[in-house]
């Protein structure tokens, strides 16, 4: 069974994760573009894989912090549908790290009630890795704790194309009236259908672009850019991002 969340961004008085109790509700869903592994390694005269390894350590720290701070969902951009353009050796390194991460960390996630999810076209990956991912998702599906969603072979435009194809198939099968396709129908066909609305999108390493990440979901998300390179990102950095979020005045197009 998939988890379901109230959809409207304002429909739940979630507590402020920094402990303050006033103003708009605290963040429920935070997504991170984890950028800067390569530059972190270069600064230390290390190979890029060392930066990605340190990036995995940051993933562990931040996943733990997200749970402790009471977030409902943390989505992490681990491999984009465009990352295939990198040298084959780096792609293989990233896939190896991912495999090892699932093997090494699944028990801890499960013990802490975390539900593991994946967004993106991950079924196009190596079949052994797909099996491992499906096993991890199934094992943690009934947990009641926060969701850690890993974006794998993910691109927002690709996600929207796949959503359009799903809806088109339902139209062709006579199940769906084209006139009934509204934002909720599209949202329901995205990979994030059963995740809470995105509140805060963080990008590390000083770059200020979305790089094809959660373009639909970011429509009303708050954006937060930090110069910290991903391997240096930690619980304090996450808390600072959330404190910034809590100071924002979100109007969702209203006054
Ligand atoms: C961007 O840094 C980072 C990535 C493309 C991959 C992110 C992957 C990890 C943090 C490790 C694997 C993740 C999991 C969940 C196990 P970059 O290489 O583009 O850095 P640069 O821009 O400084 O070169």
Automatic annotation (TrEMBL):
Mg(2+) binds at residues 35, 222. Substrate binds at residues 36-40, 48, 52, 80-82, 84, 86, 203, 209-211. It holds the Pfam family Prenyltransf. GO terms for molecular function: ditrans,polycis-undecaprenyl-diphosphate synthase [(2E,6E)-farnesyl-diphosphate specific] activity; magnesium ion binding. Keywords: Magnesium, Metal-binding, Transferase. The active site is at 35, 83 (proton acceptor). PROSITE patterns: UPP_SYNTHASE. Binds 2 magnesium ions per subunit. Residues 1-28 are annotated as: Disordered. One of its GO terms (biological process) is polyprenol biosynthetic process. Its cofactor is Mg(2+). Its EC number is 2.5.1.-. It is an enzyme of class 2 (transferase). CDD domains: Cis_IPPS (cd00475). Homodimer. Catalyzes the condensation of isopentenyl diphosphate (IPP) with allylic pyrophosphates generating different type of terpenoids. PANTHER family: DEHYDRODOLICHYL DIPHOSPHATE SYNTHASE 2, DEHYDRODOLICHYL DIPHOSPHATE SYNTHASE FAMILY MEMBER. Belongs to the UPP synthase family. This is Isoprenyl transferase. It comes from Sphingobium fontiphilum. The lineage of its organism: Bacteria, Pseudomonadati, Pseudomonadota, Alphaproteobacteria, Sphingomonadales.
């Amino acid at each position: 069974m998939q988890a379901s969340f109230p959809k409207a961004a304002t429909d739940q008085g979630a507590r402020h994760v920094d402990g303050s109790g006033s103003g708009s509700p605290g963040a429920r869903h935070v997504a991170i573009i984890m950028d800067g592994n390569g530059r972190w390694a270069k600064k230390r005269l290390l190979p890029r894989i060392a930066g990605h390894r340190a990036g995995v350590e940051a993933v562990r720290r931040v996943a733990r912090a997200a749970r402790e701070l009471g977030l409902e969902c943390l989505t992490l951009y681990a491999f984009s549908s465009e990352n295939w353009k990198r040298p084959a050796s780096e792609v293989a390194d990233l896939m190896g790290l991912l495999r090892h991460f699932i093997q090494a960390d699944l028990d801890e996630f499960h013990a802490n009630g975390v539900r593991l999810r994946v967004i993106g076209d991950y079924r196009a990956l190596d079949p052994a890795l797909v099996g491992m991912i499906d096993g991890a998702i199934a094992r943690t599906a009934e947990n009641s704790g926060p969701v850690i969603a890993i974006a794998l072979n993910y691109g927002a435009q690709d996600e929207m194309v796949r959503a359009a194809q799903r809806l088109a198939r339902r139209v062709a099968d006579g199940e769906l009236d084209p006139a009934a396709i509204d934002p909720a129908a599209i949202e329901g066909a995205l990979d994030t259908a059963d995740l809470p609305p995105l509140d805060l999108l963080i990008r590390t390493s000083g770059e200020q672009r979305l790089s094809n990440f959660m373009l639909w979901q970011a429509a009303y998300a708050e954006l937060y850019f930090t110069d910290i390179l991903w391997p240096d990102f930690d619980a304090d950095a996450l808390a600072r991002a959330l404190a910034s979020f809590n100071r924002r005045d979100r109007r969702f197009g209203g006054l």
